Amino acid sequence: MEFYKRIWILVFLFCFRLLNGQVTESDLKKHVEILASPEFEGRGIRNAGHKKAELYILRQLNYARLKPGNQESFRQEFSFKNVLVTPPFNHHIVIQGDTLINFLDYVSVRTNSAKSKEIVLYAAVDADKIKTKKDEEERKAILIDDVDEQILNTLVMKGFNYIITPVSSDEEFLRLKEINESGIIQDISDANLFLIPSREYDMYYLHPKVYTELKHQLKIKQKKAFQKVGNIELPVKKKEINANPSNLLALIPGENADSTIVISAHYDHIGVINNQVYLGANDNASGTAGVLAVAKELQKYANKNGLPKYNILFAFFSCEEVGLKGSQFYVENPASPLNSTIANINLDMIGNEDEQHKSNPNFIYAYGPKGKSEFLMHKIDSINQESNFLTLDFFENNMQVGNKFLRLSDQANFIKNDIPALFLFNGLSPHYHKVSDRPDKLDYTKMKNVCNLLVALIKDMAYDL
Ligand SMILES: [Zn+2]
User: Fold this and answer.
1) 429 and 317 together in one domain
2) Does residue 281 contact residue 438 with C-beta atoms inside 8 Å?
3) CA-based, 20 to 30 A from 215: which of 9, 158, 243, 256?
4) Do 220 and 267 sit in the same domain of this protein?
5) Residue 116: is its pLDDT beyond 80?
6) pLDDT, average across residues 346-355
7) pLDDT range class, residue 194, cuts 50, 70, 90
8) How far is ligand 1, taken at its centre, from the CA of residue 350, in Å?
9) How many angstroms separate the alpha carbon of residue 321 from the centre of ligand 1?
């Protein structure tokens, strides 16, 4: 008898889990269509649409009866200052008397640290062969054929603050130009380019033709691994962009809890560039809609079944697209102490798929760094196997790529603070940072599955189901 009772309890619990993941496609679609509508202007931090997105999220949190997550307030305001080197179209650099123009000869990415006008320029074929004396120039520039993440780290370590490198093709140059013309200096994340949030260097991507000519003019000897080639003049005139964005924080308080799970998504996007609105439906209206839906579901569940064991904090970060600034501010001013934050689960782009998963779009990367975060991957895996929401990809075959992606969104700031993190992400889709990232390109069934899996995961963690 005892045995059958137990079986029934198990069957009951199983069905309970299934029936209680009730995020619906129509809810998600409604959120995305509003957040990624033209009126919201791509939610760029300098566009009025950013504020509209903020108000929309706040309204939804109120409807769902969530509690403010920042003491009495849902808002966590911060100021954002970005420095732009002159208007981007007038931006130029001079290499040995030769003037190169931004967007014509090169694209400058996040140039904000030009401190002195004339800087010694080196050229290197092999970054490992670089020898510079200790007390040589404080800031140095380098021309280099090819840069990957490892080389970049080496260069920064050896004191190179200005890195000048060619892109591979005309097409790549145009793409970079398109992304950067807004004047907001952005992080570019792509298979070929990369991002280090705490940045101590500026990148100048040269047009391949310009690079070939320049090498010829500077008489760079291909055989020599490292050489001094002259001077480069970088502009020092700066213009500041100011914005006063807010992170939005909502809470389901835990029962006598001092531990917190943070579920997050950034709600900003890149805004309007050259009069074109980048709607950012997948990046990241999808994740924002997901967190809104999950919050509503978990609040409903808490109303019926009592408070969770842990505080569940829902964080909608701003300024992700300009260098993960919102989450950086959050970890510097956490609403709940970091040493009792047991996990961050971050949703960024959950409605598309990458090239590798074209034939099985009902998948999601669920990835965290090795070590402390692994329990999250195990947990989500076993819950998913039980209810078969979708296929999970843990970057088993390509951890390096997985680790690179971890730096691309807000979980990076939690990981830096040694907090276990899980990144739910669909990989880089063809619509990434393009005008084509529109609501009609999203797979709402898949988004629903991701959300319901997340709901089941949190219930498992916070209710001992
Ligand atoms: Zn994003």
Assistant:
1) yes
2) yes
3) 158
4) no
5) no
6) 96
7) very low
8) 10
9) 7
Number of domains in the chain: 2
Domain containing 351 — which CATH number? 3.40.630.10
443 Cα: distance to centroid of ligand 1 (angstroms): 17
Q: Find where tokens 């649409």 sit.
A: 49
The DSSP line for 267-308 is ----EEETTEEE--IIIIIIHHHHHHHHHHHHHHHHHHH---
User: Ligand 1 center to residue 281 CA distance, Å?
Assistant: 10
Whether residue 107 has pLDDT greater than 50: yes
Direct distance between the N- and C-terminal alpha carbons of the chain, in angstroms, rounded to an integer: 23
Does residue 5 lie in a domain region? no
Task: Note down the domain range covering 106.
Answer: 83-239
Q: How far is the CA of 280 from the centre of ligand 1 (A)?
A: 8
pLDDT at residue 190 in the model:
31
Q: Output the CA 68–ligand 1 centroid distance in Å.
A: 24
Q: Same domain, yes or no, for 233 and 294?
A: no
Grade residue 152 by pLDDT with cuts at 50, 70 and 90.
Answer: confident
How far, in Å, is the centroid of ligand 1 from the Cα of 3?
49
Cα 82 to ligand 1 centroid, rounded to whole Å: 19
Please report, as a single letter, which amino acid is at residue 275.
Answer: N
pLDDT surpasses 50 at 247 = yes
| 135, 159, 211 from 132: Cα distances, Å | 9, 9, 23
CA of 88 to the centre of ligand 1 (A): 24
How many A from CA of 312 to the centre of ligand 1? 22
* Ligand 1 center to 38 CA (angstroms): 18
